[in-house]
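# nightly structure sweep
# worker-07 picked up a monomer target from the shared queue
# config: single-sequence mode, recycle default, output format = structure tokens
# input follows
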Amino acid sequence: MPKIEEMGGIVAIVGRPNVGKSTFFNRLIQRREAIVDAVSGVTRDRHYGKSDWNGKEFSLIDTGGYVVGSDDIFEQEIDKQVELAIDEADALVFMVDVEAGVTGMDEDVARLLRKVDKPVFLVINKVDNAQRQADAAEFYTLGLGDYYTVSSINGSGTGELLDELVKVLPDDVAEEDELPRFAVVGRPNAGKSSFINTLIGEDRYIVTDIAGTTRDSIDTRYNRFGFEFNLVDTAGIRRKAKVKEDLEFYSVMRSVRAIEHCDVCILIFDATRGFDGQVQNIFWLAQRNHKGIVILVNKWDLVEKETNSVKRYTETIKKQIEPFVDVPIIFISVVNKQRIFKAIETAVAVYHNRSKKIKTRALNDIMLPLIEKNPPPAYKGKYVKIKFCTQLPTPYPQFAFFCNLPQYVRDPYKRFLENQLRKHFDFTGVPITVYMRKK
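# output follows
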């Protein structure tokens, strides 16, 4: 029975610009992924990472940098993001800045958070001396109860906060489910709902030309032509006529949960708009979560064939997803029902590749002679000898190679091993992890 690997929850960091959300986010995911700058609202990138504390893993979303525009637009945008974070996250970290004291924008966010029945952690940043510790007391006026004082830059106070935070997150569960789960993901208006309607042969989803009609992730059981699985349509976006939506933030936030809880991601994008940064973000999100991936180029019937051949278009996509290029790319037209069935057939094949288990003996019979022919390069005069390899008992393909000096094996050689595994055992569409271990 396949397992859905479920994460220990989603934590969203909310607050007005320039209070230190990105610095805090970087500290938690332990790498400098967000751009940190003293100019407010500098973050433009999607901000999604994994963190763990006391053995509990969770996803972290930094809502900070999705705000674009002038101060008055800031306020609407922040409200919008906080509302979305409230909907999607399991816990919220509301960050404020002790140097600035309580601002009108902080009160605004607090007003939204007071109505919430989810855990809210009021975190006061930049508290790095006794005077500021005393100043922090004014934040009681926000009406959110006790607070945590931290300094994102040096990390003080984050331990106590994380101890409490992980207590309220759902436990990691591996949910038994007899059916594979395929998530249909992509930018709003790429044709996700139409694709599912075409597959199941009924208009279960409202399909319109307005981006973002779908409100929630919905599961559909698919059982035709000998295939059976659950299809998850990720909501493109929230419906809100009043404000222009910030598409990037919504599609990523919506996709996170669906991607984490599926086996294979069917990533659909609009051929007329190209494989842009937002689509790539969703691709890397799926890859980082070790999910099977199938890329569907929709609306191919609308593309100028003279300038764009399938071969050229495929090469362009592969260049953008290097080094993980072993991914099926299928050109479809949902409207004309072209190659829809092939898309599903491919997704099922990728699912089987992801759950493939290779016997240790067969693995060693093929890999050891290849390694002997192409051993790892010597490092500082030391020779690495790989003696044995095995597939680890995880829900997705991970391999351990046992050798005398694992620390001297560099990434290019690991990629060589990965390419050989792909060549001989067919892991198309599935990320592989290679570990070097001391024998």
